[in-house]
Amino acid sequence: MVDEFEACVWPYERWTHRAHVGVAVIYLRRWPLAQALDRMRHHINLYNRTLGDPAGYHETITVLFLRRIAADLPARPADEGIAATVEALAGRYDMRWPLAYYSAGRLWSDEARRRWTEPDLKALDF
Fold first, then answer.
1. Cβ atoms of 29 and 85 closer than 8 Å
2. Mean pLDDT throughout 9-22?
3. Torsion over CA of 124, 44, 22 and 66, rounded to 10 degrees?
4. Average pLDDT in the 61-75 region?
5. pLDDT level of residue 98 (50, 70, 90 thresholds)
């Protein structure tokens, strides 16, 4: 999946929340957070532009989820496979999860899409 995503041939209808989490888990198992985030940012933007959705990238959501997943990975069982890790994390941190930290207005603002924006409801606790 990661190779297809990076080559911009992963089917757009399959570029779901679970697929985003899958790429994030693989990147974070390979690289430190800063490098994984740079790769994720680059490849989501490239993928979106290639598939005709140049405005689809959301910086705050990308950073938030990668930081959360990076914080959780060390506690996952050492012998847990990628699929089980992705299933667990995608289920725990669905697209409603950020709303514990952000108001909808702030999270979905143009500013939050363009650059990292701090939460306005609750400080990050991870």
1. no
2. 97
3. -20
4. 99
5. very high
Q: Which residue, 66, 80, 59, 53, is CA-closest to 27?
A: 66
Residue 88 CB-half CA count within 13 A: 14
pLDDT (average), residues 9-18: 97
Domain ranges across the chain: 2-114
CA distance 33 to 69: 10
Q: Name the residue among 56, 30, 32 with its Cα closest to residue 43.
A: 56
103 touches 120 (CB < 8 A): yes
Residue in the block written with tokens 């999860």: 97
State the Cα–Cα distance between residues 109 and 7, nearest whole angstrom. 29
